[in-house]
Write a structure and sequence with these properties.
Length: 415
């Protein structure tokens, strides 16, 4: 932490938030308040030597709610990145971890080298930055658990220490998803590092059955309600042109909310009805031919409702402080749209994912090959499509077997 540097340069940071990112005045004031707090703490106490300690102070000395603390932590991280790395915050990008003493940095050289070999391999495979970070974090946490339990190398690993990472004797600490990521990471390591036998470690992993996600597909009556709200001229006044365009994009392209939030005007070729982006989650290029209803909805929003602003992002906020919409705001507007449409007002899952599901099952029913659908949806693994297939009731019914020849009790169908 270099307070002198921050005092000298923070006006540039504040100006960037207001003029480049178009943050609201209230958000800019919140950042200014955090900076003022940093200056105040540095002046009043000699205990504050780092940005981490500023956050510790908020946790220790204030009664802020967990959600507010999380927001403060994000702001402190971005201020730290600006001062220490000369890095301005950017839209839809995460900053580095706030705490430098993460598990990775506390590993001995043996485990440190293993993780470095693993990271080198998955970067070579083309894993995106966010996935690389999450896998590093998960594997480092597992190796750190071994290390603090005196397992300084995998040659002396024991079953009880490995199991202790997943159970504490009374309850489950980490589930099947966590185990699967560690197992797949170890497999990559085994293929990369030749002088270590990883089979003994793998044999100690618990057997956990992953519970499959079953996505609650939209029923025909629900789809009709959504389409009525989208396309019936008598209903169009119930939603904004922006929200309508976002729902139509999701329903007829399957794009994720983060990709819709990042859409720029240059990503759309209206003459050829094409969309060309780099997907945020996997870093893969995606080129789609879009239906006229999609390009028309975008055009309608841009020409009749979008604030007159030079920002390159298509979808902007509708309040007085014009700025790009966030993925979180898109999720909320999707839920609002479902409510206005009268879909699942009594509860149940609603939102963008159901619209992606509708798009995927439409492609499936149209005979589009599964690898093509996976690519369009931005799935790295073809198995990710299974969750959609398993709720395609029309096809599943065709696979059903008659039980007419099987004897059942008289109350069987009443139970």
């Amino acid at each position: 932490m270099n307070i002198k540097k921050l005092k000298r340069s923070y006006p540039l940071f504040i100006r960037h938030l207001a003029e480049e990112l178009h943050y609201s005045k209230s958000t800019v004031r919140d950042y200014q308040a955090v900076i003022d707090l940093i200056f105040k703490l540095e002046k009043s106490t000699s205990e504050i030597k780092s940005y981490e300690e500023v956050y510790d102070y908020l946790v220790r000395e204030t009664n802020l709610a967990a959600s507010t603390l999380k927001e403060k932590r994000t702001k402190i991280k971005r201020i730290a990145d600006f001062e220490e790395l000369d890095q301005f915050p950017r839209y839809h990008e995460h900053s580095r971890p706030l705490f430098k003493k993460d598990k990775y940095s506390m590993l001995n050289m043996y485990y440190h080298n293993l993780i470095d070999s693993y990271l080198s391999k998955i970067r070579e495979k083309g894993y995106v930055k966010s996935t690389v970070y999450s896998r590093q974090h998960i594997l480092a946490g597992f190796f750190y658990h071994l290390q603090v339990n005196n397992i300084t190398s995998l040659d002396i690993v024991t079953e009880d220490v490995v199991l202790g990472y997943f159970y504490d004797g009374e309850k489950e600490l980490r589930g099947a998803d966590y185990l699967q990521m560690i197992r797949s990471s170890i497999k990559i390591l085994a293929d990369t590092v030749q002088n270590i036998d990883f089979s003994r470690l793998v044999s100690f992993f618990p057997q956990k059955k992953k519970i499959k996600k079953i996505y609650p597909a939209l029923e025909e009556s629900e789809i009709e309600k959504i389409k009525t709200l989208l396309f019936d001229d008598n209903k169009k006044g119930l939603t904004s042109k922006r929200d309508r365009a976002i729902v139509i994009i999701t329903m007829y392209t399957g794009l994720r909310g983060c990709d819709i939030a990042s859409l720029s005007i240059n990503d759309i070729n209206r003459e050829y009805n094409e969309l060309h982006i780099v997907q945020k989650k996997n870093g893969e290029e995606l080129k789609l031919t879009i239906l006229p209803c999609v390009s028309n909805a975008i055009y309608d929003y841009i020409t009749n409702e979008r604030p007159k602003h030079k920002n390159r992002f298509i979808f902007l906020t509708s309040d007085k402080d014009t700025r790009p919409i966030t993925p979180q705001a898109i999720r909320l507007l999707a839920q609002k749209f479902f409510r206005i449409a009268g879909v699942r007002v009594d509860g149940g899952r609603k939102g963008l994912h159901l619209l992606r599901h509708y798009f995927a099952t439409g492609l499936l029913n149209g005979g589009v090959p599964a690898p093509v659908i996976s690519k369009v949806l931005g799935h790295k693994s073809p198995e990710s499509l299974n969750a959609y297939v398993e709720t395609d009731l029309t096809r599943l019914k065709a696979c059903a077997l008659s039980i007419a020849n099987y004897q059942t009790g008289k109350d069987f169908f009443n139970e």
